[in-house]
Amino acid sequence: CGAVAILLPEMPFSVDGIVEKMRRTLRTGKKHFIIIVAEGVMKNGGLPDVHTFAAELERRTGVESRATVLGHVQRGGAPTARERVLASEMGYRAVELLEQGIGNRVVVNHNDRIVDYDILEALNMQKQFNQRLYEIADAISI
């Protein structure tokens, strides 16, 4: 998406590091920046919220900065054909389970297969963080 930085709970960051990256990028002629901030990251970064973060970036770089907090509807986009098919497959599996009298399940796509887990088991699962994708996004961000 062209973001200069992606801030996630899984990865440490510093405001100094973001400011320096913005300054380096300014030297390339770029004048507009997108910084993606996952929920809960600001508290881990020592800032109360993204609005304070934006104000701090503007103060330190001179680049006009605004925070936009996206709602659930705005986070997505038009689904791809594959996403529509996947939603149909998952919905179909959920109905099959209900027809069999099986409830309290979470239907997921795992390794390109539609499977279901007990809801408590699913809630306790840890999602794997893809360090390589993060590194790629960071490398191509300037």
Tags for this model:
142 residues, alpha+beta, 7 helices
In short:
The protein is α+β, with helices and mostly antiparallel strands and 142 residues long. The chain contains seven helices and four strands; from the N terminus they run βαβααααββαα. Helix 1 (15-26) crosses helix 3 (50-61).
How many helices? The count is: 7
Count of β-strands: 4
What portion of the residues fall into strands of 2 or more residues? 5-15%
- What series of H and E elements makes up the topology? EHEHHHHEEHH
The assigned structural class equals alpha+beta
The average pLDDT is 90
What is the radius of gyration? 20 Å
Could you explain the architecture of this structure?
This protein is an alpha+beta fold. It contains seven helices and four strands. It has helices at 15-26, 41-44, 50-61, 72-75, 81-99, 119-124, 131-139, and strands at 5-7, 35-37, 105-110, 113-118. It is elongated, with a radius of gyration of 20 Å.
Secondary structure topology:
Elements: E1 5-7, H1 15-26, E2 35-37, H2 41-44, H3 50-61, H4 72-75, H5 81-99, E3 105-110, E4 113-118, H6 119-124, H7 131-139
